[in-house]
Predict the 3D structure of the following.
Amino acid sequence: MSKVLIINGPNLNLLGTREPHIYGLTTLADVESSLRTQAAELGLELDCFQSNHEGAIVDRIHQARLEGVDFVIVNPGAYTHTSVAIRDAFGGVAIPFVELHVSNVHKREAFRHHSYLSDIAEAVMAGFGTLGYNLALQFVASKLR
Ligand SMILES: O=C1C[C@@](O)(C(=O)O)C[C@@H](O)[C@@H]1O
């Protein structure tokens, strides 16, 4: 069974209450529960991880290689725009990943337009709301088939 890991970075634990006009009303627990149901239907093993700490995210990416994770879907939050360490972690483990943003970062502030991950990601999603997680999992399933 193929293994998929969902990683959510800083402040994504606040989904549902955080700036709902930008991020919507769906909580992270709702997102993860819907992804678990979808993964079961797709025959995928799924693990979900959230952290507000850059080093913890780097450690989780390293652990993913030891676990034989086949694909990662990552919303790095603000670390998207700052973290060479998370970029290097993905380069180091060579696990393919989708970069995902709930909001359309390209129609927001200029500092959100640059990503340290996009040029090494398999795919990038932005602006699909929390539905993006389900669309990304569908994409990953098609890649792993
Ligand atoms: O925390 C986040 C969330 C985000 O990654 C998104 O999901 O739209 C966009 C980032 O710019 C922001 O810092």
About this structure: The first helix runs from residue 20 to 23. The mean pLDDT is 98. The radius of gyration is 14 Å.
